[in-house]
Structure formats: C-alpha cells, structure tokens
Amino acid sequence: MKIFYISAECFPVAKVGGLADVVGSLPKYLSKIGVETSVVIPSYQMPWFEGKLYRIAHKGEFYLGSEHLYFEVRYFIDDILGFPFYTIHIPSKFDRYGVYAGSDGYYFGDDLERNIAFQRAFLIWLRDGKVDVDIVHCHDHHTGLIPFMMKYAYEFQSLSSIPTVFTIHNERYQGAFGWSKQYLLPQFDSWKSGLLEWNSVINPLASAVRCVYKVTTVSPNYMNELMYDSAGLEQLFRSESWKCVGILNGIDNEVWDPATDPMIEFHLKKDAIKYKAENKKILCKITGLDPKLPLFGFIGRLVLEKGAEFIAGLIDTWLSRHKNINFVILGTGDKSIEKALQSVAFKHSSNVACMLAYNEAMSHKIYAGADFLLMPSRVEPCGLNQMFAMRYGTLPIVRTTGGLKDSVRDISEEGGVGIRFDQMNFDQMMHAIGRAYDMYQHKNFKNFCVKNAMSLDYSWNASAQKYKDIYHSLM
After folding, report:
1. CA 406, 314, 369, 274 torsion: positive or negative?
2. Residues 193 and 319 in one domain
3. What is the pLDDT, as a whole number, of residue 186?
4. What's the domain range around 388?
5. pLDDT tens, 178-190?
C-alpha cells in the first residue's frame, strides 16, 4: 500500500505549527505497520536543505494563467527522515526563506498562486511520471484543491480513480478566493463548479471536504465542534458527517524522549523527580529565575487563537499581589501581545523570562524544566504541546476545547494529571493558576501526577492503525 502525503510543512524541514509535526512523524509510524508513506512539500530556501543530497525524479512545465512555470520534483536520497521525502522546486514561487512569511515576519502575499502552482505541479508529476500511488492524502487548505482537480479537471482525468483523504488541522484557515482568480485553475467541467464554491467564493477547504473519499480531523472532540463552530462551514460538516472521523494526533516518541533528547542536558534515568529538578535548575540558570518557586511556561504562537493576549495580564495580576511564581514565555506573533509581554517582563524582571523567538532547543528545555505549561487556547484542534509537556513531566493547564479535552484529564478526575478550565475568561484562568500553585505546595501529590503524566502513551501507535484501517477501507 503506497500513500502520498501532500503538505505545506514537514518537521524538521519546514515548520510553522503542529501540521509539520504530524506530517513529519505519522509516516514513520505507518511504515512500521506496513504502509509505505511518502511526503511531498514545496522546496523552500531553508537551512535544512543545505548539503542534502537529492536526485531529480521528474521535470515538467505548465501555465499558471499567462505565467509559464518550470518545476522539478526532488527525491532526497537515503530516506533521511525515516520515509521517502520529495520536494517540488518551482523557481520564483518557493525559493524564499520561510513557509508563509519572510524572516521579517511579513507574509509573502502571493500564497494563492504558490499553493495552486504546487498542487498542479504535483498532479502533473503523478500523471506524467506514472507514479505508483494508491491513495493521495492532502493536509489543510494549501492542498485542498487537489481532490477536485483529480476528479473534474480535464487534464487530470487519468487520476480520477485514485482515492483521496483530507485532514483538517485548523479549519480557521480556509484559503478562500474570488472567482476572478479561476484562471489559475486548469479547465474543468463547469457543471461541477458548485463543488468549489462556498458563500459565493472558491473555498479550497470546503471543496476538499465535498470531494474526498474520507475527511479526518486531529481529534474526536474537534470533529464534533466543527459541526457547531467552524467559521461558517457548520452546515457543510453536518451534511458530510457520514465520511468524517476524528483521530487524535500523536507525538514522535523517538524525537520526544526525555531519556535521549540531545536538546536537554540532564536525561531521565530511573528517578523522574530528580530528572525534573535538575532540568529546572538548568532552565532557571539560563533564564535567571529562582528554581525554588513554581515555574509556569508558555510555548507557542502569540496570537488570539492561543489565548496569548491574556498572558501578560495574568502574570501582572498575580505578581503584583504575590512574588511566589516564575514565568517563562517562548514564542512570537502579534506585535501588541509581544510588546505587552516585554513590558510585564521588565516590570517583574526577577520572576519573568520572555524570549520572543522560535527556538526548538529552548522549547525542549522548557518542557523538561517547567512545572506547568499554560495553554489557554480559544481554538486547539488537537494540540501537541500538552502531549510533549506530559511526556517530559510538565503538567498542562488547558482550556476544555478540541483535542485538549480529549488528551488532558483534570486532577479532580480519576487518573487526572492536568488542570482544565471551561470558559475563555480571565477569572477562570486565574483560578486555574491558583489551583496549580496549591498543587505545587503538596509535593507528594504533584510528584505523583508528574510520574503518571510521564507514563501516559501519546505516541502515534494507536492512531496510525486507525489511519491504516481507513486506507484499507478505501482500497
């Protein structure tokens, strides 16, 4: 069985969010159970590519409107990621540093042209290169037009019998564009144009949901939420629910292993509590914080979706009353949120470390060294940070939404190791921090939860089998 994953991101090659982690890890677990899974992404001008060996698997050209484009499909030798890995090199479209935005933080502005060029080049390769593939598995709106084009574009009719699967990692990003841009698409059966449209525009995410054989989302609870809150697609998900299934994401236990992780200094041996204490000392030495105080971390994008606008106020309110907690923040995003965090870090410099950057190594150190991880998310289709945290013995504080509800059990419940709150408001978040502080004072209970959290299995093993079952059902 041969599956092709089509995505805009893949860890460690090009990562912006959780999409990269899934695409970079799930194929490895599928290969262990007999599903050969190849990954195809655009060829970016990123540091990972330097010095890597590849061969050109295919060359082609096509017109994107009036623009003539050349492309190369590059296969990276020796399966260095643990699975067959390809990129599609399209000069002038993806030969830039960054996935969606440059190093200055500004978006490129031609995402539509780039996404369509990537999808069309991929399909031309499948058609002309006579690629051996059983199922095409698309991820998020960047690849959402592929199922429609495979079925209804005249030039890709030879691919129409290949089943397709579409995974939604975040429905808030739909890639919609007006019909004035239809000229970017290959010619298709006009009677089928309704399968592209939602609310009078072309919507790649909605089109994929309609055209694929199977839709998956990244957690069961998120699948249910989409039918009632999905940025205008609620009716679509209700009508297509018969082919939709939620499968909780997993993490790569080989990359995220506290016993061998090269990005942390003190590794887990037998004593989980000593491992946590030593990593906390190391992290506090780096950040200049007192290791005797409870340490709360935040890792991620500083955007409204993550509830990040509350963090500065939470920190300031608590520390203005008590100087008995430390906070470490790692991430970038909304400039106003960044500014607020810088301000509160300056005001409470002995209790707050704020690093406005993307730093993979530092994130591992925070997972290993912090006591608690803050995730006050508005939207969290699955969330991986809470799984990384529990794997490393850091207890998550999360809002009851999406995959956070599926993966984090509250300490008030049997087997609970985390703290959950329901409403997106300041008071509930403050109460959750207070519960964590009280928990910290009860060392035996806190240590018991740390050990339990580290024993939980959130690897891809179970989820990979569910995907294999889906693929079998389509064949």
Report:
1. negative
2. no
3. 97
4. 272-455
5. 999 999 999 999 9
Please tell me whether residues 228 and 338 are part of one structural domain: no
How many angstroms separate the CA atoms of 120 and 259, rounded? 43
Half-sphere exposure for 457 (CA within 13 Å, toward CB): 4
311, 376 Cβ separation under 8 angstroms: yes
In this predicted structure, the answer to whether residue 342 has a pLDDT above a threshold of 80 is: yes
pTM of the model: 0.88
**Looking at the domain assignment, is residue 232 inside a domain?**
yes
Query: Per-residue pLDDT for 105 more than 80?
Result: no
* DSSP annotation string for 213-281: SEEEESSHHHHHHHTT-STT-HHHHHHTGGGEEE----B-TTTS-TTT-TTSSS--SS-HHHHHHHHHH
Place of tokens 């699948």: 223
Q: Do the domain assignments include residue 255? A: no
Q: If you write DSSP's letter for every residue of 368-408 in order, what string do you get?
A: HH-SEEEE--S--SS-SHHHHHHHTTPEEEEES-HHHHHH-
**Residues 311 and 298 sit within 8 Å (Cβ to Cβ):** yes
- Asked if 306 and 378 count as a contact pair (C-beta separation under 8 A), the reply is yes
DSSP secondary structure letter of residue 434: H
Rounded Cα gap, residues 314 and 320, in angstroms: 10
Burial class (CB in 10 A: 0-12, 13-18, 19+), 132: exposed
24 and 125 in a common domain: yes
Residue in the structure block whose two tokens are 């297509």: 240
- Residue 106, classified by CB atoms within 10 Å of its CB into exposed (0-12), middle (13-18) or buried (19+), is exposed
Contact present, 370 and 395 (Cβ < 8 Å): no
> What integer is the mean pLDDT of 96-121?
91
Could you tell me the CATH number of the domain that includes residue 337?
Answer: 3.40.50.2000
Match 């540093």 to its residue by tokens: 97
Instruction: Give burial (CB, 10 Å; 0-12/13-18/19+) of 399.
Output: buried
Extended beta strands in 154-235, E state: 164-168, 197-198, 201-202, 214-217
Amino acid at site 402: G
Q: What confidence score (pLDDT) does residue 79 get?
A: 84
Six-digit token string for 103:
């190093």
Residue whose structure tokens are 């890890």:
25
Same domain for 26 and 126?
A: yes
Q: What is the pLDDT of residue 462?
A: 87
Asked if the structure places residue 260 within a domain, the reply is no
Q: How far, in Å, CA of 285 to CA of 369, rounded? A: 11
Q: Is the pLDDT of residue 16 over 90?
A: no
Task: Tell me whether residue 266 is in a domain.
Answer: no
> How much is the mean pLDDT over the chain?
96
